[in-house]
Write a structure and sequence with these properties.
By secondary structure, the protein is mostly beta strands. The protein contains three helices and 34 strands. β14 and β15 form a beta hairpin. It holds the Pfam family DUF6531. This is DUF6531 domain-containing protein.
Length: 488
């Protein structure tokens, strides 16, 4: 729920971003899904003492009124928007037009990336990313699967994507990955929201708002055209802690969510994924409560038809994954009970992933540096027979020229008629030439060098060989610059 809801002015396109630090943010996804991070600080004068206390709890608060949906992940860079606070009576002490640097997850779309042990690093931001496929069961329409991804700058997840704890995002097939938003107290609807902002909206069978702790049982009907043409059906069964929400697709796939706790008067219902089934097979999930409020997925089970059984019970239930957590709700072990092999994780004091230990192997050690008050991937190491081996070392902001470096200044690239000069350089050192600290003039020849323009698009690479530097040049396919519209 939006932290500023008591003060919300109901502005269309409003997005609330409460920073707990430059590398962390939570956003009001009920209004507008936002991808990436926005580094912006607006000095705000708040006259009311009660409102001032609210701002002091979240010292970096800004609401932006613009066509922010235009700021999609494929169009990073500098954008000018009109901003204003959502607190009545508050006034800005900075100019109305503010330029912000948008920093999305910089993987793909021309951003420079490099292998980093069990994952990859986005050189533009220094963010580490890895993924894992825990379960995959071939099906008639699609595979039933569970996968996870980890990103250093991952936003707080919802009840569906956040079931593996901070930093991890869960991925399920189809509608199972959508968040269930309970708006029954507000307007009598249940909303299935995808990460891209698309929604399916269903109205209560009675067409009335919920005023107690009971969700109306029966078939719910679609509210808008997109939901109606989807062709699927939504139904509610049970009550209290046994409240179940079922979504049936036209191919026979059924996805169910259950209430985490018994619905209560005056509270929104929190749903968690319970089961994904199709003819002859299904996945169902167990959840555990850590502390007073952190629900985590603890196990996944495969229910599958067994042709060797007789009678009415022809389905076998097999545990295919189990998940363990520490006292803070962080994922520390994933086990496949069939092979009894486990992947283990540890975290550093800042909460970032520190080691990854695949089953039966020695762990990868992830080392971070600090840049602009945020963690950046520094190196990846592993213990070998002869001691610790550095698999990769990453260097940021490499100069465009200098002692031992290739020359990629504007004057130099004009030799091959390159129009746009790079603005930032990055270096990756492999295990054949490990370095402990900053590289010297004699080290650069062993590095893999990448260069980007001001927006992070990789336009040059350089590697030493054949008696000199070998270059590549990749002309950028220019992206349209989003122009905010509908400003007040």
């Amino acid at each position: 729920m939006c932290l500023l809801q008591p003060f919300c002015t109901g502005l269309v396109g409003c997005v609330e971003a409460a920073f707990a630090g430059p590398a962390r943010r939570s956003s009001c996804r009920r209004c507008l899904p936002v991808f990436g991070r926005y580094e912006v600080v607006l000095p705000v004068h708040v006259p009311d003492r009660r409102q001032r206390a609210q701002v002091q709890r979240f010292p970096r608060i800004v609401t932006a009124v613009a066509a922010l949906s235009l700021l999609v992940p494929s169009a990073p860079g500098l954008h000018t928007i009109v901003t204003r606070t959502a607190l009545p009576g508050a006034t800005l002490t900075s100019p109305a037009a503010t330029t912000i640097q948008r920093l999305p997850h910089a993987f793909g779309n021309g951003y420079p990336t490099a292998n980093a042990g069990p994952g990859r690093v986005a050189l533009w931001t220094g963010e580490f990313s890895m993924s894992a496929l825990d379960v995959s069961v071939p099906g008639y329409a699609d595979s039933l699967s569970i996968s996870r991804s980890h990103m250093t700058y991952e936003s707080p997840g919802n009840a569906i994507t956040g079931v593996f704890g901070d930093g991890w995002s869960a991925q399920f097939n189809g509608v199972a990955g959508m968040q269930v938003i309970d708006s029954t107290r507000l307007d009598g609807t249940l909303v299935l929201a995808d990460n891209d902002g698309s929604t399916l909206v269903y109205m209560s069978p009675t067409g009335e708002r919920r005023t107690d702790g009971t969700l109306t049982a029966g078939a719910w009907f679609p509210v808008d055209e997109d939901t109606a043409t989807d062709g699927s059906k939504l139904a509610v069964t049970g009550s209290g802690a046994s409240t179940v929400l079922s979504y049936t697709e036209d191919d026979g796939t059924v996805t169910t969510w259950k209430a985490a706790t018994a619905p209560a008067t005056g509270q929104d219902i929190q749903f968690q994924i319970d089961r994904i089934s199709e003819p002859g097979r299904a996945l169902h999930f167990d959840h555990t409560l850590i502390g007073s409020s952190k629900w985590r997925m603890s196990a996944a089970w495969l229910d599958i038809y067994n042709p060797d059984t007789t009678g009415t019970d022809t389905m076998d239930s097999i545990k295919v994954a189990s998940y363990s957590y520490d006292g803070s709700g962080r994922l520390i072990k994933v086990t496949d009970p069939r092979s009894n092999l486990s992947t283990e994780y540890t975290y550093n004091a800042a909460g970032d992933l520190a080691t990854v230990k695949p089953g039966g192997q020695v762990p990868f050690q992830l080392n971070y540096a600090t840049s602009d008050d945020r963690p950046t991937m520094d190196s990846v190491a592993r213990v070998g027979p002869g001691g610790t081996v550095t698999l990769a070392k990453f260097v940021y902001d490499v100069p465009l020229s200098g002692d031992g470096l290739p020359d990629l200044t504007a004057a130099s690239i004009a030799r091959w008629n390159q129009k746009v000069a790079p603005t930032r350089g990055f270096a990756i050192f492999g295990p054949d030439h490990p370095i402990a600290e900053g590289p010297g003039p004699g080290d650069w020849q062993y590095a893999d060098l990448r260069y980007t323009d001001a927006d992070g698009y990789t336009i040059n690479t350089a590697k030493s060989g054949a008696g000199g530097w070998q270059y590549t040049s990749t002309p950028r396919q220019d992206l349209p610059t989003p122009t905010p519209t509908g400003l007040p």
